[in-house]
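Attaching the record inline, Q. Sequence:
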Amino acid sequence: MVAISRLAAVRYQRAFEHARDELVRAAEKLDAASRGLTDLELQGKPRKLCLAVRASRQLDRLRSLEFATVISVGDHNDDPAFKEWTDAAKIKTRIAAFKKPFEHADPEKRSPLAFLIVKSMLLTGFDAPIEGVMYLDRPIREAELLQAIARVNRTGHGKTAGIVVDYYGIAKHLKDALTAYSVEDIDGALQSLADEIPKLRDRHQRVVALFEARGVGDQADAEAAVELLGDERLGPSSR
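Structure, as predicted:
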């Protein structure tokens, strides 16, 4: 998570922890019937209920989820709360923990640390292929922007590409930064989500219609769906 200031980074830390705790409480309050709702049954239900049900499926992990702010030392006017997040030894330990997977047979080789919240640190030269998503909430441009994106695009841990979630609006800066490269090198580098969502919605509806037309009305029945898709000739027009 890339925040606009060191203070914002610390505030994000607190907000994430608060959100985690609220979600855990909501999941723990669910009755057995609600916890058993499938994704299909959750369609059209209140958003809070959907979040709580999905959280209940990973409740143990959610309870243990950790967040760490990584920021540089400021001056003598720093808020005392910053000290926890500027200590060099603690930063080194947290970075090492972040690079570990959630799951591993050896407890020493796994870690629940899921988010690092930064302002400028770790945006360049940070070698962590496990990093899957970067959330941007401050302006970044030119070489720093390209290097920051490269951090999340390292392959590894079953990941073939990373995701950048742009809250600030840096797409224009990315286009400017990419002008130094040839058209062939950057072809397909930027795609509009607004263009992709209608395509996804249409394809989802077509797949659902395909299943329903062939007697698989409950998409939660994975076995029946997989068996149906065993026919490679299957298509919307086949009967």
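The domain at 6-18+63-192 is CATH 3.40.50.300 (Rossmann fold). The first helix runs from residue 6 to 28.

More tomorrow.
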